[in-house]
Give the backbone structure.
Amino acid sequence: MEQKYRYGVIGTGWITEAYIQGAALTGQWELSAVCSRNAGRGRALADKYGARTVVTTPEELARTDVEAVYVASPNALHTAQSRLLLEQGKHVICEKPLSAEPEELDALNDLARKKRLVYLEAIMMLHLPARAVLHRALSRIGRIHTARLDFSQLSSKYPLYLAGKNPNIFNPEFATGCLMDLGIYCVYAALDLFGLPDSLEASAGFLPPRGRPASSLPADGWGSALFRYPDKLVTLTYSKTGQSRRGSEIIGDEGTLVIDSISQLTGMRLITPDGMAEELVGEVSKAELMSGEARDFVRYIREPEHTRAAYDGDTRLASQVCRILRQMRQSAGIRFPADK
């Protein structure tokens, strides 16, 4: 039996639990340490999943014997925490976005290469069998001239915002908002399926500050973008203030692909011109969805030569997405405090 890799986590939210459950399904990871600013929450998570060590700062985590770390802290902390961990010789899988600035991401990728470490963005759709299913299905629907990629999900934090609170997800101080939280999945899908667009334009709807000074930057609560290609137009829509019930569509002249969840690639079916539907991917549990990225993460670490092409492809795509996101923010007028 192959030896399990020891890993730690930063953050104790639901996404961290989902990752822990997904990593357990691989049989190749051992949760060893939990990092949380709140020691009580850290201890509760550690006890639930059998981790022996609880720390309250990333610096302490970097000094433990873990070999890899899953980072699920607020967006604005991703770059500094990833740099710290990479410098200390830890492999890193970090929740999206890796960074708001492409130059920072380039520097971290260079650091990881220099230290022969894996540095990966936690985008579940890239590591699921459904991705290959989707790519194969594209060839069955003929010429594609239009696609609509949507991720509109009513945020569980939106009632707090309406009540005058200041949840992180609606606070640009944390380099977040709808585009960086949900729209990023639409961008990943567009670039993975169709490549870089020739041009783009983006718009955003802004939420006035609540629980912050009136002079604070507003957060984008919803938005859209148009990606132009030589032979097609791809529309992206995303919202944290309402729930879509129609999903995404890729429309060809010989059929249509319908995808209920663009981030998970679930609820995928091919509909022929006469209206007949063929199910390609059904529903998948959250733990199983997260297990794909955890499985590839350990493969990239354990088998660097055999997985180099796949890992380099993930790294290249993450860099392209980061640059496109900045173009979209500039086009839509989305600003973060760290923007030049």
